[in-house]
Structure formats: structure tokens, C-alpha cells
Amino acid sequence: MHLLFGQCLPLDNFILGAKVDTIIAQLTKARTDTARLKVIENFLISRLNKKVKIDPIGIAIDLIKQGAGNTKITLLAEEMKLSLCQFEKRFRKIVGASPKTFSSIVRLRKLINAAPNDYNMTRLGLEAGFSDQAHFIRAFKLYTGITPKQYFKEK
């Protein structure tokens, strides 16, 4: 908020255009400053009374990214106060992939971005949270279409 101090910004930077048009129409109809203040006051009070809707899937996505894809899906579902089935359905609908698939992609992306030049497949896979080298290579090939060795040779 301190970044806005001393600036004059259009109201539609903060509120949907249709709502701005409604407020402007109400302000135009108001004949006195007191009536105009009442319009603004009513609008601000209505904004205060709105309940903030918490998006559990958005939070889950952030937690998966923060955990570098190594977050347990069952624990995430519990934390979001959803059954595992509900959580997976909602997640798939919003993200387009299951939480497990998304986690694997996040893990691989982090691994690819952080991989040193003198890489060791086993070490890379274990550090990324894969159970063994075969699991790592299989997942890597599934998402990239080539083996890690081929990928890092080209890179």
C-alpha cells in the first residue's frame, strides 16, 4: 500500500469496470457531497463485508512448488480439509493433471534447472526425491521423451 501513497490512479485499476460504472452513475445522481460520501462509504463497507474465498488448490500448488515436488499428496489433501478423492478431482480440473503428475513435473523441472555440468544420474535422481535411478530415468523419459543422458548431452 505504501507504493500507492501520493499517486492518483484510476479506480478501475482496483475494481472491475462494471462496478466502477455503477459507482460513477451513483455519484452522478447524488446531489450533495454528503450523498456522494454515502455512495463511497456504502461501496467500501460492501467490500469489507465480502468473505475472502480461500482457494485450496492454489495453496496446494504453491506448497508443491515450495517442496520441490516432494510433498505427500495425502498430507496436502488433509491440510486443505478435503478428502483425497475431492482433492484430486479439483486439482485435475484446475491444473489439468493429477497432483502426483504435477509434483513429478515440478521435481523434474527443478532438477533440470539446477543440474550441474558434471552430473551423476543416480545422485541427481535421489536428490530430486526419486526412489531410485530407474524411477528417475522412467519419469524423465515420460515427460521429456528422451533419457536424462540424452538431454544433458544435448544441453
**Looking at the chains present, what oligomeric state does this protein adopt?**
single chain
List the total number of helices: 9
Please trace the helix and strand order, writing H or E for each element: HHHHHHHHH
- Between the first and last Cα atoms, what is the distance in angstroms? 44 Å
Shape: elongated
* Main sheet record: none
Q: Can you tell me the number of structural domains?
A: 3
The computed structural class is mainly alpha
How would you sum up this structure in a few lines?
This protein has 155 residues and is mainly alpha-helical.
Q: What would you say this structure looks like, in words?
A:
This protein has 155 residues and is an all-alpha fold. The protein folds into three domains: 40 residues; 46 residues; 41 residues, Homeodomain-like (Arc Repressor Mutant, subunit A, Orthogonal Bundle), CATH 1.10.10. 66% of the residues lie in helices and 0% in strands. The chain is built from nine helices and no strands. The longest helix is centred in the N-terminal third of the chain and has 17 residues. It is elongated and about 75 Å long. The mean pLDDT is 80.
Jot down its keywords.
single chain, 155 residues, mainly alpha, Arc Repressor Mutant, subunit A, 3 domains, 9 helices, 0% strand
Strand and helix map with partners:
Blueprint: H1 17-29, H2 33-49, H3 56-66, H4 73-79, H5 84-95, H6 99-114, H7 121-127, H8 133-144, H9 148-154
